[in-house]
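Q: Structure tokens for this one, please.
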Amino acid sequence: MADLNPMEQLVVNVMKDLGATSEDKIKTADDITKKTNRPKGLVNNTLVALVQKGVVKRVAREKASGYFILSTQ
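A: Here is the predicted structure, written as tokens:
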């Protein structure tokens, strides 16, 4: 996997725990924030960084965007 800092690694691990591993199993930033027990802004910034690194994909939806892991290596 790409070089991830500890927060990015935490978010990826939480997404795996939540089962956000494909487009039909996406989770919102709120779902991920609750499970990580970290500030929402920090989790959102981390998700943006993970999308830029190509580790996570963002899916725009009507209400809240969803996220899932692109590769579970």
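A few notes: The chain has three helices and three strands. The chain has a mean pLDDT of 92.
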